[in-house]
Specification:
The structure is a homotetramer of 191-residue chains.
Chain A lengths: L2 H16 L6 H8 L3 H7 L3 H24 L5 H18 L1 H17 L6 H19 L9 H21 L7 H14 L5
Helix pairs in contact in A: 1-2, 1-6, 2-3, 4-5, 4-7, 5-7, 5-9, 6-8, 7-8, 8-9
Chain A binds a DNA duplex (21 and 21 nucleotides) through helix 3.
Amino acid sequence: MSKRDLIIAAAVKVFAEKGFCNSKVRDVAQQAGIADGTIYIYFKSKDDLLISLFETKMDHIYSHFVERLRPLKNPVEKLKVFLETYFNMIREDRELAEVFQVELRQSSKFLKDYHNQKFIDYLNIIGDVINEAKMQGFFRDELNTNFLKVFIFGAIDEMARQWILDREDKLDINLMAREAYDMILKGLVIP
Amino acid sequence: MSKRDLIIAAAVKVFAEKGFCNSKVRDVAQQAGIADGTIYIYFKSKDDLLISLFETKMDHIYSHFVERLRPLKNPVEKLKVFLETYFNMIREDRELAEVFQVELRQSSKFLKDYHNQKFIDYLNIIGDVINEAKMQGFFRDELNTNFLKVFIFGAIDEMARQWILDREDKLDINLMAREAYDMILKGLVIP
Amino acid sequence: MSKRDLIIAAAVKVFAEKGFCNSKVRDVAQQAGIADGTIYIYFKSKDDLLISLFETKMDHIYSHFVERLRPLKNPVEKLKVFLETYFNMIREDRELAEVFQVELRQSSKFLKDYHNQKFIDYLNIIGDVINEAKMQGFFRDELNTNFLKVFIFGAIDEMARQWILDREDKLDINLMAREAYDMILKGLVIP
Amino acid sequence: MSKRDLIIAAAVKVFAEKGFCNSKVRDVAQQAGIADGTIYIYFKSKDDLLISLFETKMDHIYSHFVERLRPLKNPVEKLKVFLETYFNMIREDRELAEVFQVELRQSSKFLKDYHNQKFIDYLNIIGDVINEAKMQGFFRDELNTNFLKVFIFGAIDEMARQWILDREDKLDINLMAREAYDMILKGLVIP
DNA sequence: AATGAATGAGATTTCATTCAT
DNA sequence: CATGAATGAAATCTCATTCAT
């Protein structure tokens, strides 16, 4: 692992635990087992470390989704794979998910001059899958596409957050993925 | 308005704009039109100001929900009123909603020794309405109650966030409330 | 003395002793008997402290020269009074003179966005006296006015520097002023 | 050019532009096209680089003056050649002159344990020429030798500085040398 | 000899908090 | 109660210097 990646990994761990604002550059350095100053060889500032963390990880996530979804044609299949992939990724790197859940949300507000294009691209993947499924007649025609997208994203994101913040490991994320899929497909209420 | 409330109102505005960590006590004082030191007459510390803000506002919100929901018997009616009340409150105080959306989420992480009971109580209102509806046979029996609650809460919360962050006022929050209700009741997919 | 002036006085002492670059903000604070942070209430940065020091002192110096020279008509008289005033001021505040001799010279080079107008105004006082004397036929007509001004300014400035840097107090500054006047008026060589 | 000389040349350029304190060792290394660490093979520290720069250059300057002045007997001739040599050297290496003008002046203040003997020797050359001329009856007998020396040195040094800092190249240094000679020999005022 | 990544001491600056008025 | 100047601990960031390669 390159030293840059080492620092990012340490930052994910530290930011996940204490939040970006409460983390000290020194915390990250200690977590990485390097000197404080070394971080400034690879990143211009603490803010730049967070942004770089976002962009680097987003690139991976984005590619991963694209790779998994590209071979699929059936929109229902895509939706299923999307949900699986989403929850799997959360499971594979819980700390990263924690940073994204909390810090990414407010990044646009607090990081000057940072227009979070990578995150927008990522959200569009989800949006595209849902849009596509809707256009192929899978979702109810009366629904506003934009609200539908937000509704689904919010629902699964909150489920993911529950698991992320569940420090006692009571929750089964695979089960959650299946339930989410079931709720989306079969609806919530008895018809 | 008492000076305490004045400070809380100023804090809501400032924290909404810049986030808690990036806000200075001086910013809040200036927004309130008072001296820095005055804040320390009413609050023990900056952290205490945030916690007090949460608790004070939570009390209002909690009472408001209880008041609206108490007279109702029909769980479907309750669900509808709950959604209406939820989106109305967001609309009535966008800045407060913004603070809650972002800061409340991470509050457990950086506020030492603060177990956010008021927020848990508030979530339980939502949970109770949903549980009640489920137990009365309104929601599908196969669904895990805990996941259902989280799914719905996440969905509407994300819709609310879209409106909160929509600086161009393109979105109609009343429409969003109706759509959310529709999605929950009629499901997303064509049966 | 205002706290601002107290800090400037401390800065003069510290900068004179160690030079601006080698002086720490903490040194100035300790010299002033205040906390480090207090300096930042009155000055934006260490650079700003130096610039403010220049401007504040320059204003005094400028006014002082103008006051002394205004009532005079005779250019020779002006020149004499100018020289007296110049050396007197150096004697009255040796440390300030030291800062000006060394730090002011390089300030334009190292302080970003600082065009040292006050120093230019001050130099013009000397220049004007010399120009005036020249135009009234006091100095030799063949001499280039600009070079003449620089020649005289350099000569007296170097004499002042000798005294400033003379830590053993062997030199008599009043005598130096008289000698300078004599050299200028009677020339250096035997006619 | 040896690597040591290469580094000194780079240092002259960098120090002239930004001043010693504001120059980073890295700047010098980049200017020289070498690695940071290489500088430490040839010089013990950043301070040592400045001192070595002074001493090396001083040796050249000293030898140069001695060489030019040794064959001459007539003190007036010596004075003339001295002035010519002085201004020529300034012209030949403007950046070096810039470093000497500013950094040499304050070197005693921030370089620990450095008694700048080479500079004193160099000043003595000027002093000796002037003293000699004075003793041979060229300068007025009433003048204090020490002040005379300082007066002349300051005058020509300031003239040199004007040219060094004249970024628009409006000044003619050869003309300045002649004028200085004229002012010294013929005096400033109309007899 | 040359490199340049890494170090870490130390500098500037910030800001929550106090307290004399 | 209210003020806001003052504090000083602590944070970010810099950079001269080292040393394994």
